[in-house]
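Second attempt. The first submission of Diketogulonate reductase-like aldo/keto reductase had a stray character pasted in from the spreadsheet, which I only caught after the job came back as garbage. Lesson logged: always re-copy from the clean sequence file. Corrected sequence (276 aa) follows.
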Amino acid sequence: MLNGLTSTTTLHNGVEMPWFGLGVFKVEEGQEVESSVKMAIQAGYRSIDTAAIYKNEDGVGKAIKEAGVPREELFITTKVWNADQGYESTLAAFDASMEKLGLEYLDLYLVHWPVKGKYVDTWKALEKLYADGKVRAIGVSNFHIHHLQDILDVAEVKPMVNQVEYHPKLSQVELLNFCKENGIQMEAWSPLMQGELLQNEVLMELAEKYNKSVAQIILRWDLQNGVVTIPKSVKEHRIKENADIFDFEITDEDMQKIHALNENKRVGPDPDNFDF
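This time the job returned cleanly.
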């Protein structure tokens, strides 16, 4: 199953999504994002994750064009920002994103945050984009179980993906189980806790044991938990190193050691309490 960067998980509508991709949060528009996306694609990555609010969709689109890989081999994700949520405004935001990306269709479109009073209407807009064939898969980001339940209660199309903050200090076991039970693929943002975990003693010991980096241990843990992961990097050696996780397996015993690090600790906002 997990035999390299082309390994995919099958979403509940049959679309294949790579287990591993590149995130471009906080990667600057222009040269920085163009070069990191191109380096990743050259290194074998096929999944790129951006968002309207990252303000780098233009650069991502440009890099995709210049990378010389057939469009159908790539899996491109973007997200509708909070200020654009609601039915009509989401449809307009989608068109704006597509123009910047320069794409004919999108692989995955996500509701970025569960904005109170709006995310259900926003979901209806995503269902329309999906029905119209403009997006191959639709999903959400930063949704707790109760937010997902609100969508499931009215959805004609269930979310295919829930992209959330996920790392050994925030292992979200209940949410992961709920997603698995409902056929929703979980995906990790900030898998390395924005670098905070790289000096963790337990992880450093495991890294030594497996002759891998701490980042590689964490990213492999994601995959073995059935979670898609999209670490961000702008450095070529790191982009390559992050992806070098398909030649080893963490034992059950060591997986438990990593699970035991959970503190329900976030580096990002709580989806029940954000004000943007």
